[in-house]
């Protein structure tokens, strides 16, 4: 064996070390590129990340320009426990307030702590108050341009996947108004979501009672449902009714929950975190709203049973239309989501 001079061995070692450092730097740059260069994460139609603000190492506030809505929509991303490994994505939709007022998943629940050890990206979009997160047929004079179905099913997923290591495997859950929307989105984009969660929602929208509920939700912010699905006789109402098309949900893991409106363990001063105003809301408005969603949920249960579509229903004996129960619903339904996502 030929012995190399010490200088040659040192030079070779330096060269190898330099190569290792270069490769490591390239890997690090690749892992951080989604944050360092937001413009690289985009969708085919030109939607893209416009800005990113770090809350901490794993929680990011992201501005996403939507080509369909022609504006920047805010989303919060809780990155997977190991951001350097690919992860599925769980989308959590806020209710009729769009998460802009009166609380959201981000500030009224423990999702940051709950998902801290889970290998899943969690995305919470903000906006879309009273929109049903659908594509409206016309811009509304008050609510403006609403193209949420396009944003949530075609624009946002490829941005999350390409920018933050998404695997392309998704699930979606929502509360109240969004408890309807999650089914509509699943039907509009077959195969996009492996699992759907609906907490305290009214899924039926095209029968007289359903139309009244939709009118009340949209009208609460002075929107006009004619700009969404047309007049009550328009076929678009039935076309967007998950109850009517429930047979097409076969193959999707489904979790549905509701209380009864009867005050429960979280409808107390302590359960409302010492907020007397919040407690009063839960006991008056929250009780009535949950009583309605209980009836809606039983209708959906019967419909899915008739069609032979598997689904998990959690009919809680008590509980109002409020965040404490929705946090519990998310915890309870997580095993179903984890199984569907492979997380």
- Our measurement of the CA-to-CA distance between the termini, rounded to an integer number of angstroms, reads 53 Å
What strand order characterises the main sheet?
Answer: 1-2-3-5-4-6-7-8-9
Structural classification? alpha/beta
| Strand coverage percent | 15-25%
Q: In the CATH classification, which architecture of the largest domain applies?
A: 3-Layer(aba) Sandwich
| Rg of Cα set | 23 Å
Order of helices and strands: HEEEEHHEHEHEHHHEHEH
* Shape estimate: globular
Number of discrete domains: 2
Q: How many runs of DSSP E, i.e. beta strands?
A: 9
How would you describe what is shown here?
By secondary structure, the chain is an alpha/beta fold. The chain has helices at residues 6-36, 105-108, 111-114, 148-164, 177-188, 208-219, 226-229, 235-239, 276-307, 323-341; strands at residues 48-54, 59-66, 71-78, 87-93, 121-125, 166-175, 193-199, 253-258, 312-315. It has a nine-stranded mixed beta sheet, sandwiched between helices. Strand 8, helix 9 and strand 9 form a beta-alpha-beta unit. The longest helix has 32 residues, at 276-307. Mean pLDDT is 90; it is low at 1-36.
